[in-house]
Every structure is written in C-alpha cells, then in structure tokens.
Amino acid sequence: MLKKRIIPCLDVKDGRVVKGVNFVNLTDIGDPVDAAKAYYEAGCDELVFLDITATHEERDTTVDMVRRVADQVFIPFTVGGGIRSSQDMNKMLKAGADKVAVNSSALANPQLIYDCAERFGSQCVVLAVDAKKEDDGSWHVYVAGGRKDTGRDLIDWVKEAVALGAGEILLTSMDKDGTKSGFDLDMLNAVAEVVNVPIIASGGAGNIEHMVEVFKKTPTTGALAASIFHYGQVSIKDTKEAMLKADLEVRL
C-alpha cells in the first residue's frame, strides 16, 4: 500500500512565499528556499511550489529558485505556474524539480499534457486543478488564480487530462482554500471515482484531525497544507504520529 504523503505547499509570488484566503488577501510568509529547507528537516514527504503570478519574464527567477531548492532538499518536489510548453517543463526538470504541474495552459491547450507526458513520462506531469462548487451541485474549473470560471466541468476535465497522460492530480477546493474548515471530501471522492492516478487533496486543512480525516474518508494519497504549517499551528511530526495512531501507512 502506498504510504500517505504530507505535502507543504508554497505559493510563490515575486520570489516570496505568500498565503491568502479563498485565493485573495495575500500576505508575505518568507523566502521559499529557507521554507523548503525547514520543511525538509521537519520530515515532510514532498513539497509543492506554485508560482501564482507566473509570466515569461519571471521564468528565470523560478528556475533559479528551483536550483536553490534542489541544493537544499532531497525529497520529491513539484513546481507549477506558467508552464506553457514541454520546453518550459524541461527547464524546471533540468533545474532539479521532480514533477511539474500544469493548470491554465493545459486547459487552453490539452495537447500540452500529452506532449509533456510523451517526452518526460506521466510520472512527471501533475494536473493542478482549482475547482469551485456551482449552484447545481457540479464543480467548475477556474483559472487565472481562481478569478475566471472556464465553464469546464471538473469531472469531465480530470478524465480527459488523465487520458492524455497526467500522472497525478493536485485538486484544490476554492471554497475551502485558506478557511481551515477541512478538506472538500465530496469533491475528492467524486474525482477519485473517475480516475486511477494519485490525488493530492488541497484546500481547507485546519488541524491534524482534518489531515487524518481526508485519508480515512477518501482515497487520496497526499494531503497538501499551507497555513497550518507556515504559522506553526501544526507540526509535521505530530501530524504523522496521529496518522500512525489512526492505522494509516506513513513514513516516519
């Protein structure tokens, strides 16, 4: 059985780690390389870096950050934001990233998923999805940092992306993001029913119980959190010990 993964997320803007609520009201948390090293030493299983305002002009900054992180941490880490081609992905992997996340660009051009998977393998391609519940009970996929509703149905999109070669899904609930009210279990289970790749739950982690709950009540293999780790409210060590007590497979 796959061990459950605890994954701190670092949203990066202008070379700094930031955090907000429902994708807005961003506050500065610190230097991404320092944060990565601290999390690695604290025992996290993986790391995710998302350049939330990525443009071509910032690409060099992100590549430099990836290099510096790769020098400090020796666990898998994923980088996303502004990946528009397999060449962009190649730069990140060469700089030291293990996996690369695609989001807006993949929606605009689904062929990007196929091209990246064909060139580097599905295990390197993470589909990052930001989704929000609609009045009819379905979920729509959003882009542009959660500002734009694409009108795409979440379930349809994840099925298409996995068929094209996405090897993992990083699924963020916009309704839960930064609220610390627990993960969106319904959405996670709905996606898990239609795809056969690992899913990382994102959005809503507020305490250790939420981390245990998401693994107990959904098939997700990874739980991503930001606020509770950034502000020292919860330690990775305590989280893993609670998971072990709950009979979850975990790497100590």
Automatic annotation (TrEMBL):
- Keywords (A to Z) from UniProt: Amino-acid biosynthesis, Cytoplasm, Histidine biosynthesis, Lyase
> Annotated pathway, please?
Amino-acid biosynthesis; L-histidine biosynthesis; L-histidine from 5-phospho-alpha-D-ribose 1-diphosphate: step 5/9
Its chief place of residence is cytoplasm
Asked whether the keyword Phosphoprotein is assigned, the reply is no
Catalytic reaction annotation: 5-[(5-phospho-1-deoxy-D-ribulos-1-ylimino)methylamino]-1-(5-phospho-beta-D-ribosyl)imidazole-4-carboxamide + L-glutamine = D-erythro-1-(imidazol-4-yl)glycerol 3-phosphate + 5-amino-1-(5-phospho-beta-D-ribosyl)imidazole-4-carboxamide + L-glutamate + H(+)
User: What domain of life does the UniProt record list for this protein's source?
Assistant: Bacteria
Q: Name one GO molecular function term.
A: lyase activity
| EC annotation from Swiss-Prot or TrEMBL | 4.3.2.10
- State the active site: D11, D130
Where does the record place it? Cytoplasm
Work out whether the entry's keyword set contains Lyase: yes
Assembly and oligomerization: Heterodimer of HisH and HisF.
Q: What role does this protein play? A: IGPS catalyzes the conversion of PRFAR and glutamine to IGP, AICAR and glutamate. The HisF subunit catalyzes the cyclization activity that produces IGP and AICAR from PRFAR using the ammonia provided by the HisH subunit.
Entry similarity comment: Belongs to the HisA/HisF family.
Could you tell me which PANTHER family the record lists for this protein? Answer: IMIDAZOLE GLYCEROL PHOSPHATE SYNTHASE HISHF (PTHR21235:SF2), IMIDAZOLE GLYCEROL PHOSPHATE SYNTHASE SUBUNIT HISF/H IGP SYNTHASE SUBUNIT HISF/H (PTHR21235)
Please state what the protein is called. Imidazole glycerol phosphate synthase subunit HisF
Q: Which gene encodes it?
A: hisF
